[in-house]
Amino acid sequence: MDLSKKMQFFTLDVISTVGLGKPFGMLAADEDVHDFVKSADEGMEAANLFLALGLSGLAQMPFIGKYILPSPKDDKGMGKLVGVCFQYADDREARPVDDKSDMLSSWMRHGVTGAALRSEACEQVIAGSDTTAGALRGIMLQLMSNSRVYAKLQREIDEAVSNGLVAENGAGIISYATAKQLPYLQAVVREGTRWWPSVTNFFPRDIPPGGDTVVVDGKPVFLPGGAEIGYCALGILRGNKATFGEDADSFRPERWLESDPDKYAEMVRVGDMLFGYGKFQCLGKPVAQYELSKAIFEVREPIYRSSLEPPWVD
């Protein structure tokens, strides 16, 4: 079984349910409905090519951009994905309902309509599925290749189930409130997203025209106006020994349980840079956190499961 593809089916179904009101149905069909995964892959390949060649600015040029950017009329690639999302938004706007609690209804209740509604519908699917799937894949890869961590997490999960923390003695889906009470599970999630960040884009931001001064290692550093500043996710997360310790390049969830309150707060601040900062912070951060905590807990029996521990543990 290709677990990585199942993860993407899962995140696409979640974000379509939360955002558009109904799942795309990928898990039920066990296939790439609408060729969304294929379309996203093709779109990212094209985008990466233009970025690598320094040609991304062409997309913003009048009369040229429309021939480069994906169109909702396309029958493949990212354009096809955009078109399906636009159709969901148009259908909801044509037949609004008051009893829906999804994001489309929320935006409409707050006056978002037309092109803005279509844009938001498309943005959340594109930005909120592949990134979370990448995080899940990274965490699962580390769990499957680290028997010590896997066994320790399995014991915590087994105890939570046997103690009745999960509805119907384990038959129900764990709530996020309960998942947050499991310290090792939360440490695994934080360590997994730190060690294998799902987004490593530079994310440049413009420095104000007058420039700005920031403090780095206790010393003021002037940033000239008009330049761009960004960050290296792998550098500040996996390679940051000052924040995460000398073994920062190792997958070790215990670091999140051993630190004093001040050190832990620093690690959280740096670790959360994965989601951006300030007004640029990812609005889907809470949804991603729900998915990661709940999904890792629920995938609790498929990998060399026994009544006590994985068979490779001494």
Work out the helicity level. 40-55%
CATH superfamily membership of the largest domain, which one?
Cytochrome P450
Portion of residues in beta strands equals: under 5%
Compute the separation of the termini in Å.
27 Å
Structural class by SSE content = mainly alpha
Can you give a write-up of this model?
The longest helix is centred in the middle third of the chain and has 31 residues, at 114-144. 28% of the residues are buried. Helix 1 (3-20) runs antiparallel to helix 7 (114-144), helix 3 packs across helix 5 and helix 7 runs parallel beside helix 15. The protein has helices at 3-20, 26-29, 36-52, 65-68, 77-94, 103-109, 114-144, 147-162, 176-179, 183-195, 233-237, 241-244, 255-258, 261-271, 285-298; strands spanning 205-206, 212-216, 219-223, 228-229. The protein is globular, with a radius of gyration of 22 Å. The chain has 2 domains: 1-145, no CATH class; 147-314, Cytochrome p450 (Orthogonal Bundle), CATH 1.10.630.10. It is built from 15 helices and 4 strands. Strands 1-4 form a two-stranded antiparallel ribbon. The protein has a two-stranded antiparallel ribbon with strand order 2-3.
Question: What's the arrangement of secondary structure elements?
Answer:
Layout: H1 3-20, H2 26-29, H3 36-52, H4 65-68, H5 77-94, H6 103-109, H7 114-144, H8 147-162, H9 176-179, H10 183-195, E1 205-206, E2 212-216, E3 219-223, E4 228-229, H11 233-237, H12 241-244, H13 255-258, H14 261-271, H15 285-298
Antiparallel strand pairs: 1-4, 2-3
Helix pairs in contact: 1-7, 3-5, 5-7, 7-10, 7-15
